[in-house]
Structure formats: structure tokens, C-alpha cells
Glycosyltransferase 87 family protein
Amino acid sequence: MTPALPRTDRGRLLLVLALAALVTVFTATVPLLRDWFDLRVYYGSIDSWVHHDGRVYDYRVPGTTYGFTYPPFAAVAMLPMALLDLRTAIVAALLLNLAALAVVLRLLAWPDRRRPGWFGWALITCLLALFEPLRDTFSFGQVNLLLLALVLADATLLATGRGRLAGAGIGLAAAVKLTPALFIGLLLVARRWHAAAVATAVALGATALAAWVDPDASRFYWTEALWDTGRVGRLDYVSNQSVQGILARLGETDRTVWAVAVLAVLGVWVLRTRRAVAAGDWTAAFALTGLAACLVSPITWVHHLVWLLPSFAVLLRAGRPRIAGALYAVLCTSVVWLWFDDASGIDGFVGSNTYAWITLGLLLWLPAGQLRSGLRTGSRSTSTTTAAPVPAAPAISPASVQAEVCSCGTAAATAGGVVVGRVDVGGAPSEPTASTFPTDLKPQSSSERASSYTVDPPPS
């Protein structure tokens, strides 16, 4: 039986102080600082391009082999950094990520518009400090949260019957990084032709804009850099929690095996998303797409797993707080880094791929397409069985969680941020990273458990 949360201000304050102390000890014990390394890559590339007549994809962080690996439009979108010094750019990135996180929580939350209050926000903050993918996103200065917010904004439009406005967010996200392009596939599977056309047009328009700004950079990226996975990182690196990462750690290099595995994942994704869309369950449809995108991408670093956040919202809505809490807790542990040096053997196969197994399990068994008739999304209609007026439609789809049963353990599952009933729990938690910024010139070295890397390849 789940213990009840304290109801007095004094009890709540003592709980918050205790949780803050535990979080502080945990984050001090599990090294996490990345020294904004990915942001330094972005900043250095833009600075070299704008102020020193350099080429975007030629820049390397001094003393390393790491440089810019995103599509050209990402560089165009980051041009405002040329007006800032590095310290100001770091502050701006932190504020943007905080704002994006707030948007993500709002879009995934229960449609109760009441604010969670100081106690709720304190619990949310403590939980956010534990989720490893989220923590890496902040400490690397990554862009994952911004892209997730753009994609979920489109999910909200579709869920609330405003599909004619949907697609632009997905298109922009796909132009910045390729992984969100699978959400265009979701729109096609759902037969939302207009939204798919908008997303495709925005992605192509943004890409064309980048080609106009710097034709040489676009040519190099689309003809050379895109196909060179070595620019991004080692496939067998433990932070790579994709299907390709699993195969690479097994020593399987045959691309045909990977292609077959990817087709199997996509087949499951199509079947499950069709069911979710047929039920008007857009939260589940977008959650399943995020899961599939992480699995089929050649490289999915730990910080990419912020795309799992919608899945936790679905679990909570489906009344599975214990399952959500258990999976969420595992994603806070940095457990995969125990096999940083050696992922061989059965224990290495199971343990080094822990996050990938969670992603695959959620793709297979996430509750989807099970909304009650009065809770279907995709139109502006409301349930006729409710006694009190209900908002036009939930932001994406309802996330039903009983606040009274949320303890610190189960609240850790609220990856989508849930503010419910009388109490205040939920939030897309943050994470403990697996290591400290290396003491040598490499951002991730074998002497310390460095975490995921989007921008640059870990040293071979």
C-alpha cells in the first residue's frame, strides 16, 4: 500500500527538505557534469562560421576530434549565438531548456488547469533532477527538449481537433535533427494528409533555406557527413541505446541484420499506432513514435531518451503508476555505465542495453488505443456523462493518475508531468548522468563514465 503524502505544510516542508538532501547526495555521488560540451560544439562552429570565415563542418573543439553533426538548418537556427559570448549562450540554453521542459509538462499533463502549488513544484523539481536523459540534455546543452516541445505542440493540435494547424512543429524538428522525421510517418499512418504535407513542406523549406544560406555546407552534409556515422560516435559505445547499439555490442556488423531488425520494429510501430489513432489516442500514438524513433536510429545516446517522456504519461493515465515508477527509477540509475569497459557475456548483453530493453518493452506493451468513449481525443466534443463542465479536450489526451496514491517512488514515474486532483505530483524528471567531464581533453574517456554524446564520437 502506498503511503499518503503529508497534508500539513510542516510535513510537506520536511518531506521536500529530505528529498532535496537525497537528490543532492545522489547527484554528488553520480558524476554528471558535461561542462556544456555539446553547446561548446555548437557555439564554436557558429563562431568559426560567422566570425572567422570557417566552414560549419570543419570546426573541431580544440584538442578533440568533435565537431558539428546536425543538418545545415540546425546551424542556421543557431545563428543568434554569433551575437553572444559563450557564457551568455550557456545561460540562454539553460533558460530555453527550462522553458521547453515547462511546455512539455503542460502538454502531457492532466487537463486540470489548477496549479500544483509550491509543494507540487518542489516535488516535481526533485524528480526532474533524477532522470538521466533529461539531466544529460541540460548538462550537455542539448536541444532534445526543444524538439520534443515542438512535436508535442502538433500532438496537441491534433488531439483538440485543430489538425489543420498541425505539422509545422514536426517539420521544424525534423529539419534540425533527423530522428523526429518519423513523426511525419505517423501522420501518414494516421492518414492526416494535410498535417503530413505541412510537416514535409516546412522541413523541405527549412532545408532549402539552409542550402541558400550556405550551399557548400548543405552539399557536404547531404552527400558525405550524413552517411558517415563515425562523425557521430562509435556504434558499440554503451551510451548508444538503439537496436544498432545492441547489435554492435554483440559484434554484429552486418547491415542486413540491422535492416531486418529495424523493419520489424517499424512493423510493430505501424500496427500499434494505427490502433491508437483509431481510438483517438494521440498521446499514445506520439509516445509509440518516440519509442520507435529511438530504436531505429543508428545512434541513440542516453540523452535522446527524453522521447520516452510521453510514454510515462500514458502509463499514468492508464492507471499503471507502479510500472511507470519502476521503469522511471531504472532510467535514473545510470546502470548501463556499469558495462562501460566491457559489455561481453550475458550480464553485459542484458545490463548494457537496459535502456534499450525498456524502450522496446514500452513499444510492445504500452497501453494504447484504450481510451473510454467519453475521453476520446481528436475532436472538440466532451463527455456527456460528466456532472461538471469539462474543458474542450485534453491537451493531448487524458492522463488519469490519483494524486493520493503518488508517493516519492511512484511520483518518479511521472515523466510526462502530472498535476492531478488535490495533490501536486508529477513532472518529467531529470536524470543522473553517468560521469564527470573527463580530465583529459576528450569529453568522454574510459577513465570515467561519460554519458551520451550526440555531437561527437566517443574515442575509439
Q: What stands out?
A: Residues 372-460 have pLDDT under 50 and may be disordered. DSSP finds 19 helices and no strands in the chain. The two ends are 49 Å apart (CA to CA). The longest helix spans residues 255-278.
